[in-house]
Amino acid sequence: MHDPYPFVCYPPPYDWKDPGHKQKQAFFKSVSDHAKFSGFPSMLLKDWMGGYFPNFIKTGIVIPHQDSEVELNHSVNPTYFDASKFNLLHAGNLMKQRNPEGLIKGFKLFLDNNPKAKEETRLLLLGNAAYHKSFIEKNVATIPEIHTQLSNVPFDEVYSLQKKVSVNIILEANSEISPFLPGKFPHCISAKKLILHLGPLNSETKRLLGEEYEYHSRVDDVGKIALLIERLYYIWKEDPNRLVLYREDLLYYISKDYLKKSINDLLNRSSL
Predict the structure, then answer these.
(1) 60: which strand partners?
(2) Burial of 105 (0-12, 13-18, 19+ CB in 10 A)
(3) Do the beta carbons of residue 224 and residue 214 sit within 8 Å?
(4) Do 166 and 202 lie in a common domain?
(5) Is the torsion defined by CA of 171, 173, 178, 179 positive or negative?
(6) Residue 102 class from Cβ within 10 Å (0-12 exposed, 13-18 middle, 19+ buried)?
């Protein structure tokens, strides 16, 4: 299960209540009661769905999204990217619940507080953002340090940039819990660059990064976002090579070796 099902099981602020949700819940309870094993990419998602269908707690296993180990086309070098600058990248769909307002305002506050940084800092927002398009376009019109491409961007281009930028951004909904493991999480981990995580404390991303991971803020905390960007910027100024997130535990967690171990464990459990 990549996401909650049926839609009515999504946590706030997602407010999806699809037609026939009661019948779908009854159907899915039957599925949960009869499945020998149930797979989730996230421990929090397993526990969340277990609150609706308790058998998932007993049968649930966590198999995270893997890094695809794609062979990069290193010739991908978009004209808007300048490797000599301090680049922060958010790549991915900014759906209604993923509001970039705090990020944009926090970035602007960082620039206001550090005007000399304007010449060497860029925020890249790549991906669909239909719900937030008018807000983004209105605000970035006066901030030339923000580059936007509010449409689909080829995977090769994004995957290459995630490895070249200074900082990757994971932005989640403004909520009390985010049980999802973002599909780009393994790519951000394999990029080995620091991650600016904007989301709730109770999120799968924060759980995996660890309780002590410092580059985290709620998505609407403009002051803290500005402060974290400033801290990352001055690390970059001192030595760009310090903006590294090398986590052997997480690299293994998203690897095919971990997937193979998980499948072998299931096969062994099935034979008992």
Answers:
(1) 38
(2) middle
(3) no
(4) yes
(5) negative
(6) buried
Condensed to tens digits (0 to 9), the pLDDT of residues 65-113 reads 998 766 666 567 789 999 999 999 999 999 999 999 999 999 999 999 9
- How far apart are the C-alpha atoms of 220 and 198, rounded to whole Å? 8
Q: Counting beta carbons within 10 angstroms of the beta carbon of residue 126, is it exposed (0 to 12), middle (13 to 18) or buried (19 or more)? A: buried
178 falls within a domain: yes
Of 120, 183, 111, which is closest to residue 143 (Cα–Cα)? Answer: 111
Q: Are residues 109 and 215 in the same domain?
A: yes
Q: How confident is the model at residue 213 (pLDDT cuts 50, 70, 90)?
A: very high
* Rounded distance between C-alpha atoms, residue 91 and residue 150, angstroms: 10
Helix (H), strand (E) at residue 90 = strand 86-91
In the block, residue with structure tokens 């209540």:
17
Cβ distance 172 to 200 under 8 Å?
Answer: yes
Q: Which run of H or of E encompasses 231?
A: helix 222-238
Q: Is 224 helix (H, G, I), strand (E, B) or coil?
A: helix
Q: What is the CATH number of the domain that holds 128?
A: 3.40.50.2000
Q: What is the mean predicted confidence (pLDDT) over 5-10?
A: 92
Alpha carbons within 13 A on the beta-carbon side of 123: 29
Spatial CA neighbour of 184 closest among 170, 194, 197: 170
Residue carrying structure tokens 């690299």: 251
Domain span at 42: 7-62
- Binned at pLDDT 50, 70 and 90, residue 64 comes out as very high
Burial of 111 (0-12, 13-18, 19+ CB in 10 A): buried
Q: How far apart are CA 62 and CA 80, in angstroms?
A: 38
